[in-house]
Amino acid sequence: MNKKAVVMVSGGLDSTLAAKIMLDQGVDLTGIYLSAPWGCCDKTVAMKAAHTLGIPFLVIKMTDEYIGVIRNPKYGYGSSMNPCIDCRIYMFEKVKEVMARIGASFLVTGEVLGQRPMSQMKNSMALIEERAGLKGLVVRPLSAKAMEPSLPEQAGVVDREKLYGITGRSRKEQMALAIQFGLLDYPNPAGGCLLTDQEFGIRVKDLFNHQDKIDLEDMELLRFGRHFRASPSTKLIVGRNEQENATLAEYLAPGRLLFQPDQFAAPSVLLLGPPDDDMNGLALKMISRYTKPEKRPAEAKVLVKIGVPRGNAPLQGETVTLNESIAQEELDKMRIGL
Ligand code: SF4
Hints:
Strand order of the largest sheet: 6-7-9-8-10-11
CATH topology of the largest domain: Rossmann fold
Radius of gyration: 24 Å
Mean pLDDT: 94
Bound molecules: iron/sulfur cluster
Low-confidence stretches: none
Distance between the termini: 51 Å
């Protein structure tokens, strides 16, 4: 066993501390960041942390294969649509591939025993390691002393005496360590993985219930706008602000229509599903519903854009007049999450 390892970096305090503890023991570290559309951590923040630590930084981009893990978790979901055990197994498997490629002997994580109810309990941590083919090869510098010694500790590659025994959800000890190590510029704990969020979970469930083939882009779209299920095959997304309107335009693709207010401040609507006059009418009623009366011109027009393959300009469909609005109760019945 050599002294080369990879560390999963999120940019947060725990993983930064874990990396720092290993670097102080002379471990040759490479930082790995796993990117997913619902992830809790920002890639730029993680990259900055790796830079501060002075370690190489690699990104593993999650693929559509990962959706299968989220959709059919062998070990079930947590409080929302977060299949943490299956997700961690998958992540560890991906990290293991990188370890083999760069000749690293073990994995370092910032996990803290008992910090998360599903994936950071003793039994689940052991299960995850084993299922990912990394049994005994995960060093958790923050909690190591509260756990069985890992293989690198047993082999003396890592000095167990210089590791910690932090457990639970309090962050006091990590903050004290940050001061001790002079790590003063770290982000506050992030909002967390969106899959643990109840409202996002409702959207995920709706997507899983209505669509057979799902890709990362479908999942990405769940983050923007207000979502409405109009029929088993049709969903409408209404932008909540200028930025979301612009984002929805970027997701215009074949099989989708974009309804864009023509020179007045109002939401855009992205319609996902087969073309249908009723659904088009619904998109217009939604724009009408969410347009402030004072922003609405006497002759409000909406441009209908037709999605084409990426890289081409969208086709311009008809320009239609905006008139009636949709009743709130009708809207509420179709709403998916908040
Ligand atoms: S919180 Fe989200 S990213 Fe983290 S293990 Fe659970 S499902 Fe995966």
